[in-house]
Amino acid sequence: MTARTTPSEVLLRASDVTKHYPLRADGFSRHRRVLRAVDGVSLEVRGGETLGIVGESGCGKSTLGRCLVRLTELTGGRVEFDGQDISTLSTRRLRPVRPGMQLVFQDPQASLNPRRRAGDIVAEPLLVHRYGDAAAVRRRVAELFDVVGLAAAHLDRYPHEFSGGQRQRIGIARALATNPKLIVADEPVSALDVSIQAQVLNLFADLQEEFALTYVFIAHDLGVVRHVSDRIAVMYLGEIVELDETEALYKEPAHPYTQALLSAVPDIDDGADAPRRERIVLTGEVPNPVDKPTGCPFRTRCPYARELCATERPRLTPTASGRHTACHFPLID
Ligand code: SF4
Fold first, then answer.
1. Do 241 and 317 meet the contact criterion of CB atoms below 8 Å apart?
2. How far is the CA of 36 from the centre of ligand 1 (A)?
3. Nearest atom, ligand 1, residue 306 CA
C-alpha cells in the first residue's frame, strides 16, 4: 500500500490549464483557428474527497479529466499530482507516477478489449508495472474481482458475457489494480440503466471509504454528481464558472449558468416542503469553442448580462460570503 494523503492535503492541483486544438485554416482566412477545449482551468482536489465536474456535452470536462492524469498533453498551465509537477515529465519519468492515478471510462463496452478475457484485462496494468509472477498476478486479479463484486469464477469470460454494470465493474477493478490514490471517472454511469447506476455509485462510495480514494467525478447529470461529490465545479465553454461545496451550490447557486442547470433538475431530494425552483430556459445555442464570445463566455445566453460582461472576462474569485464564481454580478454576494 502506498501512503495515503490526509483529507486536508491537496493531492491534485491544476493551475491555468489549457488544451487548445489548432484547426486547419479555411479558404477564406489565412489565420489558423483554435478550438479552446479547456481554457484556463485552476482547481485543487484534496486527498479523500470527491470533486464533481459538471457541464453540458462539449464543455471540455472530459478533455480536462484527461489533462489531469496527463493522458492528453497540456497546451499550457501545470498539473501537480502528489506534490510533483507532472505536466512536463518525460514519458520515462511519468511511468512510476502513472499507477497512482487512473481513469475509469464512460462506456465499458467500448473501453474493454472484446477479444481479451476479463481477468487478462484487469491483469494488464499489473503486468505493465511488474507486480509479480503469474501466480501472484492471478491471485491479485481474483482479489480485485471480489472487491468490485464480481465472481472470481468468471475471470476467463469475455466482456460480452457480462452485463453493462458488470463490465463497468471490470473497468473499476482494472483502475484499482495498481492501488491508485486518484481515480478520474469520466461519466462512469451514464451508459448504464438507471437501476444499475445506483449500484455502481454505491460501489464507488464503498471503495472510496475502504481504500481512501480521491475521485474526480465527471458527469453531465447534476443529480448523479450531487450524490457522490463533496464539491462541484461547473464548466461552460472550457472554463470553470462556479466551484463550491455541493450543498451550498445546490441550495443557492451563485452563477447564472448553475442556476439554469439546476432549474432543470427535479428537486426530489430537497423534500416535499422545499420551495420549487423556477424553471429557467436558456435561449440561444452554446457558442462554438472556436469562436468564443469576448468577455464572459456565458454572456450570449445569460439573462443578467450587462455591458461589462462583453468586455471583461470574469475570473473565478471568492464572493464576500466565500463562494467561488466567475461572474461580474453573482446571484449571491
Ligand atoms: Fe451573466 Fe455577466 Fe455574470 Fe457572465 S458575467 S454570467 S454574462 S452576469
1. no
2. 20
3. 2
